[in-house]
Design goal:
Blueprint (H helix, E strand, L loop, with lengths): L3 H16 L5 H6 L8 H16 L3 H35 L5 H30 L4 H23 L7
Helix pairs in contact: 1-3, 1-6, 3-6, 4-5, 5-6
Length: 161
């Protein structure tokens, strides 16, 4: 077994929390799927996963924490915007006007760009307090966790007719 395989397996196991914990209670409830975790629980699990996976020493951790807190505040705001967008998808799914479709498309693409811009904005900030390998690992962890959440969302987001 390769050295990285246990870490990937552990990451995927821990990330499974996210597939059971969509923070989109209003959307999930609309489709008979109540949220099992609060947004705060989900955020705490995400932060715990990041901290454990990075394996930082005390000095790195103290330098990382304020940058990570600022990053998470912005990432969480984007996640809340995504919740609103998904709720709007659900409301418009059965009878979407051309104008609604254009507006939802623009919001969708703008939100995706802003998420990528967030990672770009913080890359140098993380690089100032972490070695390059840890910065890459951090970005990979976020990618995997976002992918799991997006997969979960795919099960509750109705497609436009």
């Amino acid at each position: 077994m390769k050295r990285s395989e246990p870490r990937v397996a552990a990451l995927l196991s821990l990330a499974a929390v996210f597939s059971c914990a969509s923070s989109l209670a209003p959307v999930g409830a609309a489709y008979g799927q109540g949220s099992r975790m609060t947004r705060e629980d989900l955020l705490a699990h995400r932060q715990q996963l990041v901290r454990q996976s990075l394996g930082l020493d005390a000095q790195q951790q103290s330098a990382f924490d304020p940058v990570y807190a600022a990053y998470e505040a912005e990432r969480t705001a984007l996640a809340q915007e995504r919740e609103g967008l998904v709720t709007d998808y659900a409301q418009a799914a059965l009878a979407t006007t051309p104008e609604q479709a254009k507006e939802l498309t623009e919001r969708f693409l703008r939100l995706r760009r802003r998420r990528l811009d967030l990672d770009e904005k913080y890359r140098d900030r993380f690089a100032a307090v972490l070695p390059p390998q840890k910065v890459l690992l951090f970005l990979q962890l976020n990618f995997v966790m976002d992918a799991v959440v997006n997969y979960d969302l795919a099960g509750v987001v109705p497609l436009v007719k």
